[in-house]
Design brief:
34% of the residues lie in helices and 13% in strands. The chain is of the alpha/beta class. The protein has two domains: 268 residues, 3-Layer(aba) Sandwich (Rossmann fold); 93 residues, 2-Layer Sandwich (formyl-coa transferase, domain 3).
Length: 435
């Protein structure tokens, strides 16, 4: 008789045992609490059926049919969470939420300053309910100052934080980005602040209030713009696809309609590019010899590379060796878009293909890293979700459930966590408290 070898006990997830009351809306706040949820925390989304979370009304929707529980945008930001609905305007609503918060470790919110206080959920009130509570407020501009009460979303914030000033063509207006760029930059800073507060509470037993400004966090993504102005008095501005430190730095169209991006920041990159191109004469012109010279010759470099990509790439159905009409000599080697990238990468040139959403979804690197998760949603069916952009070696993230339906977990939360009896719950349900 042989015994089974001992198995190592499953490690506790980093935030297992932490419960979060999540009031945060739209992008930044929900992504912050999702980091905790994917690593073991019990995160409870608090909404109201009378005024549901804004992102629930934003597409894409399944079959392009708007549905309060059918937003893919909302779903991707709120997987691994529970969801409740409470009518804050009902006399019993705020009282029930405060009873829930008594059982929570963290409160997250991203309303305009003063909103939480109007419902009786400000930090001083909540600290009276639970002295070690941690609360993080994440409005656009922080809790104080002349802009504190300005409302808006990430598209407004990216303009205020200067990103639009740098996005566009040299001779054109500021454009900004197609998505609310700061919504995907700012959460990393907020999550770090919140994790630091949790560590502080673990060591001292004390909670704290975090006044987090999305505006201030976003400015960290401006590269050297502020330093360049304060030190040199130089105002950086729009450069299109060009860059202050790299040349070439652009996207180039291949014959099949796809695009390849190249970014040469060092002399080694430039030497590799010349070798990949077959050392054409223009690369060795005097004005191309040094990086600072090439920075000033970006348009000339783009002209030569655009010609090369159009002339030396081919459709996948065409022969790799093609005879140039009217040109004597052996056939010219032509490359598919994928082969161009492989060629340049083999010479140490930083480059890559501009991928479509379909190509991203099928990307072999992301598949290898298990970035995408498949979860079965009650309304949307089996759908793809993003996982965190990092993997802890011993306690990796796990997407445990699809995003909650509106009010889906009311009975569990209010009966099992808050402790309502069945009769109390039914009475409150009949009164419309859970709307």
């Amino acid at each position: 008789m042989t015994s089974e070898p001992p198995t190592e006990p499953a490690l506790k997830k980093p935030f297992e045992g932490i419960r979060v009351a999540d009031f945060a809306w739209v992008g930044v706040g929900p992504l912050v609490s999702k980091y905790l949820a994917d690593h073991g925390a019990e995160v409870i989304r608090i909404e109201s059926a009378t005024y549901p979370e804004t992102l629930r009304r934003v597409g894409p929707f399944v079959n392009d049919t708007p549905h309060i529980d059918g937003s893919g945008y909302f779903a991707n930001f709120n997987s691994s969470k529970l969801g409740i609905s409470v009518n804050f305007k009902h006399p019993r609503g705020p009282e029930l939420v405060r009873r829930l918060i008594a059982h929570c470790d963290v409160v997250t919110e991203s309303y305009t300053p003063g909103t939480m206080a109007r419902f009786g959920f400000d930090y001083e009130t909540l600290r009276g309910i639970r002295p070690d509570i941690i609360m993080i407020s994440m409005p656009l501009y922080g809790q104080t100052g002349p802009w504190a009460h300005y409302a808006g979303y990430g598209h407004v914030l990216q303009a205020a934080a200067g990103f639009n000033h740098f996005t566009g063509w040299e001779d054109g207006p500021p454009l900004g980005t197609g998505v609310a760029y700061t919504d995907f930059l700012v959460p990393h800073f907020a999550a770090i602040a919140l994790i630091a507060a949790l560590d502080y509470r673990r060591r001292t037993g004390q909670g704290q209030y975090i006044d987090f400004s999305q505006f201030e966090a976003a400015i960290h993504g401006l590269w050297t713009a502020i330093l360049d102005w304060t030190v040199n008095g130089h105002e950086q501005t729009r450069l299109g696809n060009h860059d202050l430190e790299a040349a070439p730095h652009n996207a180039y169209r291949c014959r099949d309609g796809r695009w390849v991006v190249i970014a040469c920041e060092t002399e080694k990159h430039w030497e590799g590019l010349k070798a990949a191109l077959g050392r054409p004469e223009w690369c060795d012109m005097e004005r191309m010899r040094r990086r600072w010279q090439r920075i000033n010759e970006q348009k000339e470099i783009d002209r030569h590379l655009s010609f090369w990509f159009e002339d030396f790439t081919r459709l996948p159905t065409e022969s790799a060796l093609q005879v140039e009409e009217g040109v004597e000599g052996p056939p010219v080697r032509k490359y598919t878009t994928e082969e161009v990238v492989q060629l340049f990468q083999s010479f140490g040139v930083p480059c890559g293909i501009v991928q479509s959403p379909e190509e991203m979804h099928a990307d072999p690197q992301l598949a290898h890293r298990h970035h995408y998760w498949k979860l079965e949603h009650p309304v949307m069916g089996l759908r793809t979700y993003d996982s965190p952009a990092f993997k802890l070696s011993k306690t990796p993230a796990e997407l445990t459930r699809p995003a909650p339906l509106l009010g889906e977990h009311n009975e569990y939360v209010f009966r099992e966590i808050v402790g309502l009896s069945e009769d109390e719950y039914v009475d409150l349900l009949a009164e419309g408290v859970f709307e």
